[in-house]
Amino acid sequence: GDSVTQMEGPVTLSEEAFLTINCTYTATGYPSLFWYVQYPGEGLQLLLKATKADDKGSNKGFEATYRKETTSFHLEKGSVQVSDSAVYFCALPYSSASKIIFGSGTRLSIRP
Amino acid sequence: DTGVSQNPRHKITKRGQNVTFRCDPISEHNRLYWYRQTLGQGPEFLTYFQNEAQLEKSRLLSDRFSAERPKGSFSTLEIQRTEQGDSAMYLCASSTSTGGEKLFFGSGTQLSVL
What we know:
Strand content of chain B: over 45%
Shape of chain B: globular
Order of helices and strands of chain B: EEEEEEEEEEE
Largest sheet of chain B: 7 strands, mixed
Distance between the termini of chain B: 36 Å
Low-confidence stretches of chain B: none
Radius of gyration of chain B: 13 Å
Structural class of chain A: mainly beta
Mean pLDDT of chain B: 92
Helix content of chain B: under 10%
Oligomer: heterodimer
Low-confidence stretches of chain A: none
Mean pLDDT of chain A: 92
């Protein structure tokens, strides 16, 4: 069935470092793809999305490109900040978009 | 817009007891979802409502679990005869039917079954 697999954490980086969090997916067709983020003590929130192949989603300096040839949707940021410390989830809609399924999450910690 | 509200934030119970959680979605959202999240895992889908109709239930949802959304507004999730394996964070999310891919999550109810 449809699924997402993302790199395991935790990931610890220094401030201003380059970030990549890998995500690959298995799906029937070409669904939209998402990154959700969960900041400490808060609910999950949508960070960015891409709706079709070769689309690039972006928000808050984060980017992810929908690559159908590699079935990937890796999250990148050129210069991370302490405030980016959170858990990041790759996700895709399932069952005619009636629900969303999530990867296992990657915890990111940024050192000042 | 106060966001999705869940109560209580924490619940500690003894094995075999019943517990009930409440979710108040964003007022104009007609879709409401329940998810369960355990440590180190992503949220797992449990069930969802469109207005008051429960349209889908996961196979993860045993007969001990029941969810309601009687007036198409708030929802309750009840777990009967709790087991230690039920310990998890229970998340509620809501969305519009046209923006169903963008979910708005509450902060969750952390259940600990002793």
